[in-house]
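Hi everyone,

Forwarding the result from last night's run.
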Amino acid sequence: MITYGHFIGGRHVPGASGRMADVFQPMDGSVRAQVALATKAELRAAVENAKAAQPGWAATNPQRRARVLMKFLDLVARHNDELADILAREHGKTIADARGDIQRGVEVIEFCLGAPHLMKGEYTEGAGPGIDIYSMRQPLGVVAGITPFNFPAMIPLWKAGPAIAAGNAFILKPSERDPGVPMRLAELFIEAGLPPGIFNVVNGDKEAVDAILTDPDIKAVGFVGSTPIAEYIYTTGCAHGKRVQCFGGAKNHMIVMPDADMDQAVDALIGAGYGSAGERCMAISVAVPVGQKTADELVRRLIPRVESLRIGPSTDSSADFGPLVTRTHLDKVKAYVDLGVREGAKLKVDGRGFTMQGYENGFYMGGCLFDEVTPEMKIYKEEIFGPVLSVVRAQDYEQGLKLCNDHEYGNGVAIFTRDGDAARDFAAKVQVGMVGVNVPIPVPLAYYTFGGWKRSGFGDLNQHGADAFRFYTKTKTVTSRWPSGIKDGASFVIPTMG
């Protein structure tokens, strides 16, 4: 059995707490590994290593930092099969989906190769008599990321890439459910030439999280996960003087207008609603057909597609999606389906009884489809995070828009239509951070920023793109004048440049 400790100061360090957690292989329910759960002292050891290494890394010019990331990209490409296999075995998503997880992380590292440009400040010559003003971006020091189970490659790289490229030392606290890929990425960073101590992995649970949030030497914390935990991390981190960036839950709607290409809309809902067993913060979990005719046609077409979804082990290349991450999470998702039935929603496709022959102990569930869901139901209000799609019928476009705007979450949303006016109006008025027009999962590319609104996001800067470099740096502004024989004498008023 595999045992995961921590990765501190460029090397593997066994856990010292004596506390361990099981890491499951969801496709067959077996225990694949055990992972150490860190104490506050172990987190502090990572901070001390990071503090010692960071000044030298910050003094390394941005081009050379970028070259290390280039070598890292090459190593990730060479080890892609291995990384995808680890990811699929510990998370449960298919190999193809695991490759996508890695690729979206790689794209952010590729963006970070532009650090020499992204770290540039501004310069004004002659801002006043003999006075020049310029600004510079400098790293914060030691920063940390707390990342979720559903993207064990992508989100750690989204957090670590910009932080490291900007000259910081980074401490990652990944999900204890699937720590294998983060630990392997740490090894590849060292192989690429990253100095020991610049990328550390501390595995753990709430004790490690609280240690991060209260450690005085950690200057910034990024988080992705559920909204209650996001809010806790945001308020606790801010209370301890940290810069904090947190992204929480979602309930992503897809408006289907009467003029939409119905084949395209159905394909989009099947992929975006059930891919990765629905364990995505950008999954479409609510379909909003506009008008009775549209709704009836959409549901009629969805039913056979959901019934024919191919569910299989992570290693099955023909599977549409694999198992859920743990039995506990599987039971939680099934309980939501039970609740929806009690609440009066019409369960058109029931995947609760699905079992996988030969993998009876795996954490499998078939796709579920609800119709006639209403905004008062908990299955509409709360994030289910499983292969469950709810259809909420809207009488007209305005009601569909209102559904999106009234929901407490504002992560992602989509509209499917052939009408450019409707799409433009929707993009302007919807109160959601990421919008897709005939695109079901509107995750921006790496050079734009990713972030939700309302209770899907806490903090004023988003992930990746230019915002990431703003988050992981502080701006220093220098006003300079060199002696030129000017003798102004003492001045007791605020200086101006007039």
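The mean pLDDT is 96.

Cheers,
N.
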